Amino acid sequence: MAANDYYQQKPLPDPTYPPTGYSGAGQPASSSYSTYSGPPPSYTSQPPPKANQPSPSPFDTPFDDHVYPASTHQSPYPSQNQLNDIPLQPQGQGRHSPNKDPEMQDHVYEAPKRKKSRKARVRMGELGMLGSSDKKIPWVVYLFTVIQVAVFVGELVKNGTATGSPIQTSPFNPMIGPSPYILINMGARFVPCMHNVKGIQDSDITIHWPCPDTKTLDPNAPSQKCTLSDLCGFGGVPEPAYNSSGTMDQKPEPNQWFRFIVPMFLHAGLIHIGFNLLLQLTLGRDMEKSIGSIRFFLVYISAGIFGFVMGGNFAATGIASTGASGSLFGVIALTLLDLLYSWKDRVSPVKDLLLIFLDIAISFVLGLLPGLDNFSHIGGFLMGLALGICLLHSPNSLRRRIGEDTTYAQVNNGMLSQGTAPPFFKNPVGFFKGRKPLWWAWWFIRAGALVLVFVVFILLLNNFYVYHKTCSWCKYLSCLPVNNWCETGNLQITKNQSA
Question: Where along the chain is composition biased (Low complexity) (predicted)?
């Protein structure tokens, strides 16, 4: 019987037991049962209830979903034998029975499936921050991946149009990609396009620059006689004076500041973009799904910009730097913080730490090769650490001590979780109310990390545009002192390049 049939039953007779006027197993003796048209009720040896006791509702009985037919008048109090004879599932109405009546099976319920509980220990390759099990769609990773692939295809097309080959062949580009001059013309970080450089603006000889469509490194080739403005593109830059009055204070000076941002979407070749996307679509995707797209976007962009700013200050002035390596080093820094934050919750934290250090060491050693900018890696990693302290949740042990065992999504189904402070933007006063001293101490550390990285960023920008200071030993962080590798990438202005 379906549940809605409860409300369509015929009225039961007078609950007085035995019914007045009943004369035995035959028909009723009085007309008081004229409204009752069903078969005569059957009775058992069960003692009758007390007089005037109301009939129990089928919703109050242990078998409320197995109601008695309204067309019969049976005792609402079945005997013990009747109770034992009631099957949990009617015979012939099982799951595999051919005779399935929906109304006869509405009392059969399946136990709800329980969600799998989070494992007590975090295995290798998993994120261990409290709340990292909340899966979100990694929109930033997917969007940036599509843009980077599209831009790389554009690089190959432009190189093929300009030189006749989609990749540089003379000399061969080991990354299997376009020439560095095409990359410079498309927005790679190239210091001469961004500010005055010693040896260029104060040069008293005319400097000829490679054209974007150059096919050879011969300085006397026609494709090597372009202006700096031709090479930089994007509307050009002010040309140096190239006379005895040229100074480092020449105004206006080149100022293509966007070269701190655009290179994140450029890559030097197929191998370069392949390794970056492999890391981005695995480690980066998992990190964004755990911390959310807004936090991930801030770390990704900030780490990439900071890495290019640091490289602009200390790397060789003639290197055309590209790639999302700085951003991905920021993601690696977040992974390291996640490990430290959940150290006691992991199965083998030491192995996880060694694996992260191995990845960092391999990338750092590769950054020592000629023509590569290791400062982007270093800067991205440092920015990732600083912003990770500011944006990630507190360490697991600290959150448990202050009673803040919540996920990144503080609002669940529109309601705040129990013991969770309201969001800052909705209730600034309530956000700080009742906080414990440990919470305040950790937030002072967070604020200090944010202030420190902001001050360093301003100082580096000021040094890049105003002071142009460098250090004699910094170059060894991005090169090995063998075969003049540390001189590779530095602009060598000679008379062969003059008119």
Answer: 26-37
Annotated catalytic residues are 325, 377
Residue entry with tokens 């807004």: 294
Torsion of CA 388, 389, 393, 398, to 10 degrees: 150
Query: DSSP character for 464?
Result: I
What single-letter DSSP state applies at residue 467?
Answer: I
Q: Distance between CA 120 and CA 299 in Å, rounded?
A: 29
Q: What's the token pair of residue 210?
A: 């490679």
List the chain domain ranges: 1-80, 139-410+420-497
Burial (CB < 10 A; 0-12, 13-18, 19+), residue 335, is buried
Angle between helices 437-462 and 293-314 (to 10 degrees): 40
Backbone angles phi, psi at 104, to 5 degrees: -90, -5
pTM: 0.70
- DSSP secondary structure letters along 115-137: PPPPPSSBPTTS--STTTT----
Tokens of 102: 């929906």
The model's pLDDT over 122-179, given as tens digits with 9 standing for 90+, comes to 666 567 665 666 677 899 999 999 999 999 999 999 999 988 899 988 888 889 999 9
Contact, 322 vs 184, CB < 8 A? Answer: no
Closest CA to 191 of 251, 255, 287: 255
**DSSP state, 171?**
T
| Paired strand residues for 415 | 412
